[in-house]
Design goal:
This protein is α+β, with helices and mostly antiparallel strands. It is 46% helix and 19% strand. An eight-stranded antiparallel β-sheet has the order 3-4-2-1-7-8-6-5. Strand 3 and strand 4 form a beta hairpin. The longest helix is centred in the first third of the chain and has 23 residues.
């Protein structure tokens, strides 16, 4: 038998007890107060069962360990290779089933133009030159984008709605968001963030955790590559500026 959490067990217990109290109290004893008590128990049982289904399968501590392990491994790989290039966040149309980050191994100060889908490999080639290679990796944003019910639209309001649903509704790591678009730049403001950026080597390439989520969602919405050009966190507000690729 599949194990259940305490919310579900308590809900089932109240459901049975409420049914045993409500039916005799109404049809046999004709006691209104006892019937009302039974109905209250039934209502509470439905609430507890619903809460039981909402409890995550993995405890938050386990999720945190998995996240830290994945981030540390990526940071170690980037640091060992000595990469300092800014990551390019690609939509699923260019990276596979879901958005990913592409880090060029060689950079001359300009971002490479990626116009066709890259091979689904860790080391991927995007051009004909021997130096046109880089790392194609999954990030926190790759997994977070998969939590969206549908692909967001390419407008500021739709992107803001998607980020609000994800960061506030699903992940609970912020209180509100705001999106402002200006030509080929997208400015996203996240208020009262609950994730810290850290200062690892990989942060220079990938950006902070919230920035990776923003860049991945924006890349998927616009269906274009995105680059994190600036991150600022001051007085409970985290601002991310994205540059839209061609």
């Amino acid at each position: 038998m599949k194990s259940r959490n305490t919310y579900t067990w308590a809900g089932l217990g109240l459901l049975i007890a409420g049914g045993l109290i409500t039916l005799p109290a109404y049809f046999i004893f004709h006691l209104i107060w006892l019937t009302a008590l039974g109905i209250c128990m039934l209502i509470l049982s439905f609430i507890l069962i619903a809460l039981g289904k909402a409890v995550p399968k993995l405890p938050p501590e386990v999720c945190s360990l998995l996240l830290e392990t994945g981030v540390d491994n990526i940071a170690s790989l980037i640091e060992e290779l000595g990469i300092k290039s800014k990551a390019i966040y690609l939509p699923s149309s260019l990276a596979g089933k879901y958005p990913r980050a592409f880090i060029p191994l060689h950079s001359n100060g300009s971002h490479p133009e990626i116009t066709k889908a890259l091979p689904k490999r860790l080391i991927a080639r995007y051009g004909s030159s021997p130096e046109d290679i880089g790392l194609l990796i999954s990030t926190i944003g790759s997994a977070a984008t998969g939590m969206l019910e549908s692909k967001p639209g390419a407008t500021p309001d739709e992107l803001e709605a998607a980020l609000t649903s994800l960061l506030i509704g699903r992940l609970g790591v912020a209180s509100s968001t705001r999106v402002i678009c200006n030509n080929n730049h997208i400015n996203v403001e996240i208020f009262k963030p609950r994730l810290e950026n850290g200062a690892s080597w990989s942060h220079q390439c990938l950006g902070g955790p919230l920035a990776t989520v923003v860049a991945s969602v924006a890349a998927e919405a616009w269906d274009k590559p995105m680059t994190i050009s600036q991150e600022v966190q001051v007085n409970g507000k985290y601002s991310v500026e994205l540059e839209v690729g061609k």
